[in-house]
Design brief:
Low-confidence stretches: 4-11
CATH superfamily of the largest domain: NAD(P)-binding Rossmann-like Domain
Order of helices and strands: EHEHEHEHEHEHEEHHEEEH
Distance between the termini: 53 Å
Shape: globular
Strand content: 15-25%
Largest sheet: 9 strands, mixed
Strand order of the largest sheet: 3-2-1-4-5-6-9-10-11
Bound molecules: 1,4-dihydronicotinamide adenine dinucleotide, oxaloacetate ion
Structural class: alpha/beta
Radius of gyration: 19 Å
CATH architecture of the largest domain: 3-Layer(aba) Sandwich
CATH class of the largest domain: Alpha Beta
CATH topology of the largest domain: Rossmann fold
Mean pLDDT: 93
Number of domains: 2
């Protein structure tokens, strides 16, 4: 069955700004990590330090330990020069000339807590970053992993809009972890090399909204039965909480998350230099009636070129998507509405 969920013709949301090859010369690309001292942030910093496509890596954290992290990383040969920015007054300088801002800050999930409950703890640093971006750098790409992704990306988008610097083509929620889990779990079941199989993962990033499309597996010589798809979907959706429980709430996914962000960043760096790349990402997307949606997304030097808009689904996947769509809409509304709650709270104190 052809997915006919999209509410508007695909051209409606196409970014028509031209991508120029070598838009940003290799030597000039600057990346900032917000929340660098955290488990995700520090592992990510180590991976990005090895990336020759980045010239400057700016590490920001409220925590002074970011200075120690930068000193260590900066004495490794190769890759970008590394600078530390510690404390709230350094947030603006940390992002001022940056091309790609990676928001990995704040609380991870504890056992028994649902992702959507994380918005109260995680909204404040996102708001501070959006304010700083509006004042200092409204042209950077913003890529977020902070939970709950389904709500935090809309929350950040409305804030940026209110601050007069929203570009819907440049705000991304990173969902490469779902893709990584899908490929590796399916690889185990099919006894295939996970790096050689591709499976689109659409929807959102939560237990009820991740929708892997095994019927679209490539190469199509592989086949996932409905029983296998059902079992794998459950495993992929529960993978986050499984890690949280196995680590007794001390941390959530850290190494796999840093690895997945690194995959995303590698593609975006090529996009910044003029290539058109496909990343798995939760972005503004009018095609499914949910305002925001995740899936394979084409990105170029000016940001999003084309969000995902159509797939062939079998009946099993169609039912999963039918159930996921209202949940994504609910999460998007939670994020959008939280802007008013948050701003009125801040005004009072
Ligand atoms: N979208 C996804 O697939 C995933 C998202 N995450 C999210 O990534 C984020 C970071 O996770 P981790 O690095 O494991 O967390 P962590 O606890 O190791 O680090 C948290 C970071 O936030 C900062 N921070 C914590 N409390 C703060 C406070 N009160 N004020 C100012 N800064 C504070 C710390 O300095 C540190 O940089 C969390 O929101 C987590 O839920 C994590 C894994 C997967
Ligand atoms: O489950 C969590 O809290 C972290 C996360 O999003 C994931 O690992 O998928």
């Amino acid at each position: 069955m052809l997915l006919a969920k999209f509410k508007s013709p695909k051209i409606f949301f196409r970014n028509t700004q031209k991508s120029h090859l070598n838009f940003i010369p290799l030597r000039n690309i600057q990346v900032s990590i917000i929340g660098s001292v955290g488990e995700v942030g520090s592992n990510l910093a180590l991976l990005l330090k090895q990336n020759p496509k980045i010239s400057r890596l700016q590490l920001y954290d409220d925590n002074e330990s970011v200075n120690k992290l930068a000193i260590e990383l900066d004495c490794l040969p190769g890759g970008p020069t590394v600078s530390a920015f510690a404390g709230p007054s350094m947030l603006r300088p940390a992002i001022r000339f940056t091309d790609l801002i990676l928001m990995v800050d704040r609380s991870h999930r504890k056992p028994g807590i649902k992702r959507e409950q994380m918005i109260f703890a995680n909204a404040p640093p996102v708001q501070k970053l959006c304010r700083a971006m509006a004042e200092q750098n409204s042209t950077a790409f913003l890529a977020i992993t902070t939970s709950p992704l389904n709500s935090i990306v809309p929350f950040a988008s409305v804030l940026l809009l209110n601050y007069g610097s929203y570009n819907p083509f440049k705000v991304f929620g990173i969902t490469h972890l779902d893709l990584a889990r899908t490929r590796s779990l399916a690889g185990n079941v099919l006894q295939a090399n996970p790096t050689e199989i591709q499976i689109p993962v659409i929807g959102g990033h939560s237990d009820e909204t991740i929708v892997p499309l095994f019927s679209n597996i490539s190469p199509n010589t592989y086949e996932v039965t409905e029983r296998q798809a059902d079992m794998l979907t459950r495993l992929i959706r529960k993978a986050g909480v499984e890690v949280v429980n196995k680590k007794y709430g001390v941390e959530s996914a850290t190494l796999s998350m840093a690895w997945s962000i690194n995959e995303f960043v590698n593609c975006i760096l090529d996009a910044l230099r003029g290539a058109e790349v496909t990343v798995n990402s939760y972005t503004a997307n009018p095609h499914f009636g949910t305002k925001f949606f995740s899936g394979p997304t084409v990105v170029g030097a000016q940001g999003l070129v084309q969000p995902c808009y159509e797939f062939k689904l079998n009946d099993f996947e169609d039912k999963l998507l039918e159930k996921a769509l209202p949940m994504i809409s609910r999460d998007v509304s939670q994020g959008e509405q939280y802007v008013d709650v948050f701003e009125s709270f801040v005004r009072k104190f």
